[in-house]
Amino acid sequence: MIIIECPKCKHKHKIPEDKVPSTPKIARCKICGYKFPVNLNKDLSKTKRIGVCISKGGVGKTTTAVNLAAGLALGGYRVLLVDTDTQGQCSFLLGVKPAAGLAELVLEELSPEETLFRARENLYLLAGGRGLAGVKRLIDREYFGGERTLSDALSKIERDFDFVVVDTSPGWDALSVNVMFYVTEILIPVSLEIMTIQALANFLKSIISIQKYRTELEIKYVVPTFLDMRVKKKTMSMLDKLKSLYPDKLCDPIRYNNLLSQAPVYGKTIFEYAPGSKGAQDYRKLVKRIAKNPDLFN
After folding, report:
1. Domain coordinates of the chain in residue numbers?
2. Most C-beta atoms within 10 A of its C-beta, which of 107, 165, 220, 248?
C-alpha cells in the first residue's frame, strides 16, 4: 500500500501499489478536488526530509542537526546528514575529513557513492565546504528550475535512507531556497534571546513566500535552545512566548550545557562524549519525537 498525501487538505490516500502507474502523473484529491503533480521517484519515497533552518547564526543549529542525525542513527535508522554551509562545520563536529561532499555530487564531478562519507554506523555525511560556492554560481546561472538543483542531486540517493537531515547556513541565499524546495519538514532551533525571536519572525516571512509555490513545506518543529535557568525570569519569559505562538510545534527545550560545546573539540557527538549529560538527555527526547517512537533508547 502506498500513501499519497494531498498538499492542500493533507488527506492521505491509501492506494495499492499495483494500481499506481510507474510514470509521473497528475493526482486529484477525492476530498478537496485539488490537482497536484506526483513524482513517483520522489514524492512516494518514505524518506523523511528535515531541514534544520533559521536565518541567524549562534542558535545551536549545526549542533542540533548533527546530534539529531547521530541520535536517529543510534536508534537504528539509516540517516543522511547534508551540510549546505560553506564552512563545513558538520565534518568538524563529527571529527571527520571527507575528501568530497555535496558540491561534487551537485556538480557531477564524482559519483554519488564517491561523495557519501560513512561518519558512523547508519550515519552518512554529504560534507559542505568552500566548494559550495561553485554550486551557488551554478544555481544563479539557471534560467529555469534552479531552485530544484539540490532536489535533483539528492533524489539519486535519498531512497537509501530513512531520514535526510539538512543543515543550512545562516542567512538566506540561493542554496537556502534550494533546501526549502527539497525538504518537507522544517525544524527551527531558537535560542532563548530577543534577537533570535526577531530573526524567527523574518525567517517565517521567507518560508511563507516559498509555501506559495510549495504547499507541502511545513514548519514542523520549533526547538528552544540554550535554556539557562541561571537567568530564569528572562528565559522563561521567552519560552512562554514561544509556547503561545507555537503550542503544537514546540519541542522540549535543549538546556544550556557546556558539554555540548566541548564535544566537537574531540570530534564526538554528545551521545559519545557525555551520554549521561543534560544535553544528551534533551537530544534523545528530540530524536524520540521526530522518530515518533517514545520507546527508542529504552
Report:
1. 1-40, 45-291
2. 165
Distance from the Cα of residue 256 to its chain's centroid:
22
Secondary structure letter of residue 159 according to DSSP: G
CATH architecture of 45-291: 3-Layer(aba) Sandwich (3.40)
Distance (Å, whole) CA 289 – CA 251: 8
pTM of the model: 0.83
Cβ neighbour number for residue 276 with a 10 Å cutoff: 9
Q: How far apart are CA 40 and CA 257, in angstroms?
A: 44
* pLDDT band at residue 238 under the 50/70/90 scheme: confident
Which position has the grid cell 526577531? 198
Amino acid at 131: G
How many whole angstroms separate alpha carbon 254 and alpha carbon 25?
43
Helix (H, G, I), strand (E, B) or coil at 99: coil
Q: Which three cell numbers stand for residue 260?
A: 555540548
